[in-house]
Amino acid sequence: MFKIVLLLLNIIHIKKHMQKVPEQFVQQINLPDHLKAQRYTITKNIFSIITIIIHASILLLWLFAGGLSKLELFWTQQQLTPIWLGICFIMSFSLINSLLSLPETLYSTFIIEQRYGFNKTTPRLFIIDQVKQFILSITLGVPLLYGILYFLGETGPLWWFYTWIFLILFQFLIIWAYPKFIAPFFNKFTPLDSPELVKEIDHLSKKIDIQFKDYYAMNASIRSSHGNAYFTGFGKNKRIVFFDTLIETLNINEVIAVLAHELGHLKKKHIIKSIIIGVISMFIGFYILGQLYNSPEFFEAFNITSQTGYMALILFMLISPAYMYFLTPFSSYFSRKNEFEADYFAAEYTNANDLVSALLKMYKDNSSSLTPHPIYSKFYFSHPPASERVLFLENLAKKFNS
Fold first, then answer.
1. What sign for the dihedral angle of Cα 309, 292, 319, 175?
2. Which residues, 6+ apart, have CB-to-CB distance to 372 below 8 Å?
3. Is 19 helix (H, G, I), strand (E, B) or coil?
4. 236-258: per-residue pLDDT in tens?
5. What is the pLDDT of residues 132-146, one digit of tens each?
6. What is d(CA 72, CA 99) in angstroms, rounded to the nearest whole number?
7. Residue-wise pLDDT tens digits, 33-58
8. From residue 14, how far is each of 24, 102, 345, 374 by CA, in Å?
9. Best exposed site among 42, 104, 127, 133 by fewest CB in 10 Å?
10. From residue 339, how far is each of 11, 203, 241, 350 by CA, in Å?
11. Which of 392, 399, 401 is nearest to 359 (CA)?
């Protein structure tokens, strides 16, 4: 209900500021583009309300209509070993949930994104992506679940601690493998082919004293016209990736400013800090699960009669988001703080006005609303709202360019 209230507040606020471009952006954003962004955001928010209701209904069906119990009964009749029983139960649960969410994905991709001119995904590519995701989930999911269920069943009361260690190692393996093995499974990555851009990137790298040679363009345009850039990997596998849609939209100075921002996250150790926070959060979560696993009340409270390890994992996965939900604004706050720090770093080594220009083009091309409700943005936004971020960068431009 709280999620729905926030979305309704955001919709009402956006409608209130529908017909006028904010004074701060009148020189860069015209009224038709502003109207498109407002309508696009409202459409997505309304759809989010519908999906929240659907997801809540599915959750209640799994818990209180006997969905989990019926699925477990099916697999217990197959005479499998305990570990493989748990793997089959969890993987089939995930498959059913994926199939239930398929209409949502189809509507979002082929109706909403298509209506506003963002979708480039063909039905053939969509099917290929779904098949690849299924293959990847089996390839990674089965060994992951086997390890978790092994530790759960074979290592006694401290199973949660050993599982935590195992998941940390598995997570680092995925972070290492993602840039070279997982991401290329879905997209094509090619080295930047602009000599002038590469020259500017090398100049920036030397200026900020960072050894970084992997800069790639990703063919994001085969699925969407949205533009973005991101940092991924660690060690020799770390790389900066630009969406090809972004490179086509921005000029060289703007691309360099965006890159400086991304490298700011690296230099300010935001990625390492995020990993440490994730490791600590995972430890707390597994400790709690370790205590709940021995509590019949935990299972009985959600209408579950089977007190097994795999059922505890599924149950904890289903209900923990509800209990963790009100931590969202805290994680959003720290994420926005990191973004401001990365912007400051970019302003030190490039022209902040170039980053402002790049951001405004991205807001326009992605149809991002310039007028979100303040409470909604404080609760959810991992990046500062456009008005705050642009004002911050404009002040930095005056500071560093004076």
1. negative
2. 10, 13, 14, 41, 381, 385
3. coil
4. 666 778 888 888 888 999 999 99
5. 999 999 999 999 999
6. 18
7. 999 999 999 999 999 999 999 999 99
8. 16, 29, 32, 11
9. 127
10. 25, 23, 18, 16
11. 392
Residue type, 61: L
Residues 297-313: what's their mean pLDDT? 90
First-to-last alpha carbon distance for the chain, in angstroms, is 49
User: Which token pair is 249?
Assistant: 């939209």
Rounded to a whole number of angstroms, the CA Rg of the chain reads 23
Q: What pLDDT is recorded for position 305?
A: 86
Amino acid identity of residue 220, one-letter, is A
Distance separating alpha carbons of residues 174 and 38, to the nearest angstrom? 37
- Kindly state the tokens that stand for 58: 């599915």
User: For residue 18, what are its two tokens?
Assistant: 């529908």
- Residue 232 pairs in a beta bridge with 239
Average pLDDT (375-382) is 96
Return the closest-CA partner of residue 303 out of 65, 1, 79. 65
Tracing tokens 């696009």 back to the chain, one arrives at 40
Spacing of C-alpha 238 from chain mean position:
18
**Residue indicated by tokens 């409608």:** 15
How many C-alpha atoms does 302 have within 13 Å on its Cβ side? 23
| 136 CB neighbour count, 10 Å cutoff | 13
